[in-house]
């Protein structure tokens, strides 16, 4: 049996670290300005045209205070989330993560611009950013990830109790039998329009500006293509949704949290679109409109996932629960 | 597809796994080009050794039912996958029956020729 983990929402020390993570970008902006002050042109270049020439400048004081303000706003968001009482663990985490992302974005924009401008006397001599744009998004995501991680372990939801109602589907598992449902779910052809549109945008940017400007879009498009193939795995561990050819990352709904499973119809309109969707008490993996399975989870939560054979999948989940709570 | 194995049954686990995949291809639940779960997922889910799964996948490849490619995992082969799987099932059943009668493979082939 799984040992029950007491629900904790992070210690005060881990929250202090979270606030530090949220404010560090603002600190980096301020510190780098103090260090580089003498070597920065004033005004600083803040916009380049398609030929890589500077066509927009901003006074150092204004650019600096703007970036500092945005970074500090991100930090403030983290601080408020950390000290506010009566906030749900997940709301807190999301706010700290978003705060960190905002802070990292402002700091990265400042560092890229100041780094390029460093040592140039005139704004017009500063070269346009190249690979910097490609690292901007991953760096932001990494910093947001660190912010999320500092919120401490995610409190484990309570275990589900009892067995699914007898009226719900079953697959008939004998005692000692083991089973796995494995399915690679591919979306409809229309879904491939999304990465296609992103790549088309990238081509336009690459032609009109330069390949580096198109790189964030190429990165996003490749990510979308990767995420288009999803896997549904159901076994004694629970229900897992895995992404991409490497089946990573994974969303796991542990069997111990599942009360029951039933057949349902997945409607993208109910979830605001396709993909991994979240709303206050529910999550869904919407791959296409049509058959799916709805899992009732402990704490009145639910999880909906598309599948080609909902009767078998729901039946397997219920039979596995019967087996584990005998 | 649904994999279901019974560790208490006399049939070896690798054969049970191979028979499940073969059966699913034979009756069209698994179509050509579809991908099977990774050996690791199957091993963890069914609580069997990974070598057991790899042995099952290896046998299915010998039977020309699946393709094993590094990085892509196991996929169902060919266009006439269902028909071929049914043929393999029939051959395996024939071999099992002839083993019971103590016939050698040559004798079985002779019998097949005589009746064809």
SS-derived structural category of chain B: mainly alpha
Helix content of chain B: 55-70%
The stretches of 5 or more residues of chain A where confidence is low (pLDDT under 50) are 1-10
Strand order in the sheet with the most strands of chain B: 2-3
- Strand runs of chain A, count: 11
Largest sheet of chain A: 5 strands, mixed
How would you spell out the order of helices and strands of chain A?
Answer: HEEHHHEHHEEEEHEEEEH
Query: What form of chain B results from the Cα inertia axes?
Result: globular
CATH architecture descriptor text of chain B: Orthogonal Bundle
What is the radius of gyration of chain B?
15 Å
Strand content of chain A: 15-25%
Shape of chain A: elongated
Mean pLDDT of chain A: 89
The total number of structural domains of chain B is 1
Which stretches of chain B are poorly predicted, pLDDT < 50 over at least 5 residues? Answer: none
What series of H and E elements makes up the topology of chain B? EHHHEEHH
- Within the CATH hierarchy, at the fold level, what is the topology of chain B? Arc Repressor Mutant, subunit A
Strand content of chain B: 5-15%
């Amino acid at each position: 049996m799984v040992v029950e983990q007491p629900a904790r929402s992070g210690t005060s020390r881990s929250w202090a670290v979270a606030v530090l993570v949220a404010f560090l970008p603002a600190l980096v902006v301020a510190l780098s300005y103090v260090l580089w002050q003498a070597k920065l042109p004033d005004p600083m270049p803040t916009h380049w045209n398609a030929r890589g020439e500077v066509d927009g400048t901003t006074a150092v004081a204004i650019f600096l205070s703007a970036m500092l303000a945005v970074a500090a706003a991100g930090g403030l968001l983290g601080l408020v989330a950390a000290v506010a009482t009566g906030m749900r663990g997940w709301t807190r985490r999301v706010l700290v993560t978003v705060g960190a992302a905002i802070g990292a974005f402002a700091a990265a924009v400042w560092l890229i611009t100041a780094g390029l401008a460093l040592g140039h006397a005139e704004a017009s001599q500063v070269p346009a950013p190249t690979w910097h744009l490609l690292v901007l998004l991953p760096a932001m995501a990494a910093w947001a990830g660190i912010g999320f991680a500092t919120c401490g372990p995610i409190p484990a939801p309570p275990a589900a109790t009892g067995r699914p109602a007898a009226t719900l589907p079953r697959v008939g598992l004998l005692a000692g039998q083991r089973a796995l449902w494995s399915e690679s779910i591919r979306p409809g052809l229309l879904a491939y329009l999304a990465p296609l549109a992103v790549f088309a945008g990238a081509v336009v940017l690459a032609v009109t500006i330069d390949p580096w400007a198109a790189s964030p879009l190429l990165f996003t498009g490749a990510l979308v293509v990767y995420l288009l193939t999803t896997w549904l795995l159901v076994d004694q561990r629970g229900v897992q949704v895995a992404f991409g050819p490497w089946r990573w990352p994974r969303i796991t709904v542990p069997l111990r949290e599942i009360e029951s499973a039933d057949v349902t119809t997945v409607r993208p309109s109910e979830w605001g679109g396709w993909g991994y969707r979240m709303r206050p008490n529910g999550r869904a993996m919407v791959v296409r409109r049509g058959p799916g399975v709805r899992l009732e989870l402990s704490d009145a939560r639910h999880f909906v996932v598309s599948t080609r054979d909902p009767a078998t999948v729901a039946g397997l989940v219920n039979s596995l629960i019967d087996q584990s709570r005998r | 597809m649904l994999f279901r194995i019974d560790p208490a049954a006399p049939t070896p686990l690798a054969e049970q796994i191979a028979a499940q995949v073969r059966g699913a291809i034979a009756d069209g639940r698994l179509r050509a080009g579809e991908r099977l779960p990774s050996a690791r997922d199957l091993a963890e889910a069914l609580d069997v050794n990974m070598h057991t799964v790899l042995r099952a996948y290896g046998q299915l490849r010998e039977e020309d039912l699946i393709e094993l490619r590094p990085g892509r995992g196991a996929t169902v082969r060919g266009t006439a996958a269902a028909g071929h799987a049914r043929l393999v099932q029939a051959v395996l059943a024939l071999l099992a029956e002839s083993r019971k009668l103590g016939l050698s493979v040559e004798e079985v082939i002779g019998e097949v020729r005589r009746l064809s």
